[in-house]
């Protein structure tokens, strides 16, 4: 596919400082625990000015919400959600340790909260169920999703949050 490069997150196929900024969104938690530091090193290596790293980080509340979301997926689709299953298998990354990785290399780090956990869980469960809806019910779901995006999401970045963005 034009414009896409296939590579490994722990061995990025780019020269040092190839990009002003590098963004990694909802990837870090899918990398096995032993390879995470190498991934962060690679992000820093190819970034000239900074890294934007977003994803869920470990907490009792996030793990509990993911378990409920996965059970909802299982109830609707009769199988686990492959991504949430991988989160559980790999263990979610630690926010403090990830921040310390960057700060220990002289980077200043800001953490932005994203996706209020209760709203994230409700929307995930509804989204899992969406494929079973038809007609008027499907349209109502789509309307509720559009409402969330237009009127809720903009003020949804507060604790407890599902995801953090490290800049």
Folded structure, characterized:
The longest helix is centred in the middle third of the chain and has 18 residues, at 60-77. The protein has one domain (19-166). α2 (60-77) packs parallel to α5 (117-130). It has a 4-stranded mixed beta sheet. It is built from 6 helices and 4 strands. The model has no long low-confidence stretch (mean pLDDT 94). The chain has helices at residues 36-46, 60-77, 82-90, 95-103, 117-130, 135-152; strands at residues 19-25, 47-56, 111-116, 161-166. The chain is elongated and about 50 Å long. It is an alpha+beta fold. 47% of the residues lie in helices and 17% in strands.
Keywords:
6 helices; 4 strands; 17% strand
Give a brief description:
The chain is 47% helix and 17% strand. The chain contains six helices and four strands, in the order βαβαααβααβ.
Summarize the SSE layout with pairings.
Layout: E1 19-25, H1 36-46, E2 47-56, H2 60-77, H3 82-90, H4 95-103, E3 111-116, H5 117-130, H6 135-152, E4 161-166
Parallel strand pairs: 1-2
Antiparallel strand pairs: 2-4, 3-4
């Amino acid at each position: 596919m034009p414009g896409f490069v296939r590579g490994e997150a722990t061995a990025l196929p780019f020269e040092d400082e190839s990009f002003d900024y590098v963004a990694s969104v909802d990837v870090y938690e899918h990398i096995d625990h032993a390879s995470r530091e190498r991934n962060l090193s690679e992000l820093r290596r190819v970034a000239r000015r900074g890294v934007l790293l977003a994803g869920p980080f470990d907490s009792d509340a996030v793990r509990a919400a993911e378990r409920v979301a996965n059970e909802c997926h299982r109830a609707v689709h009769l199988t686990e959600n492959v991504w949430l299953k991988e989160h559980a298998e790999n263990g979610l990354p630690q926010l403090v340790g990830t921040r310390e990785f960057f700060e220990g290399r002289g980077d200043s780090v800001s953490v932005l909260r994203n996706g209020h956990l209760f709203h994230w869980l409700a929307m995930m469960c509804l989204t899992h169920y969406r494929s079973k809806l038809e007609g008027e019910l499907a349209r109502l779901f789509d309307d509720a999703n559009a409402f969330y995006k237009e009127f809720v999401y903009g003020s949804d970045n507060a604790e407890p949050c599902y995801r953090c963005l490290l800049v």
